[in-house]
Amino acid sequence: MARTRTPVPRVPxxxxxxxxxxxxxxxxxQVLSALGPGVHQLCYSAQEADGLYVVAEATxxxxxxxxxxxxxxxxxxxxxxxxLVGARVExxxxxxxxxGGPRPLACGWQVSGGRLHGMPAVRVQEAVTxxxxxxxxxxxxxxxxxxxxxxxxxxWP
Length: 157
Hints:
The protein is α+β, with helices and mostly antiparallel strands and 157 residues long. 29% of the residues lie in helices and 31% in strands. Helix 1 crosses helix 2. Keywords: Plasmid. Residues 1-22 are annotated as: Disordered.
């Protein structure tokens, strides 16, 4: 039986969606490049205009090549693309936890104006601190690396 892929949401328009997907692909490449080798858990979370939340997660292992479950990474890319074009999104963040040390490291970016803007460590710490009573390691938050656009803003696809 042939495997089918869920169609890409077409909000708010095909050209805008394609532009968002290109931006999301570039943004994820910049994020992973800035983080470097390791095991990274990506979590995109957004609140939509109707009050509903969208969450997409993927675990990525980055060595000399990228190793990830393609469907997970695809969901993060699509959700991020819709956030970058502002489709019904009120507030969105991408939080990344890097595993492998005694405690996970965490940084994050807020989605605003079609770009990812690094979040300060204190805001990331608020986002990743486990709820009271949950037995989980508390990640060490740090200010996200600055992502530089490969093109001037006016030349972004």
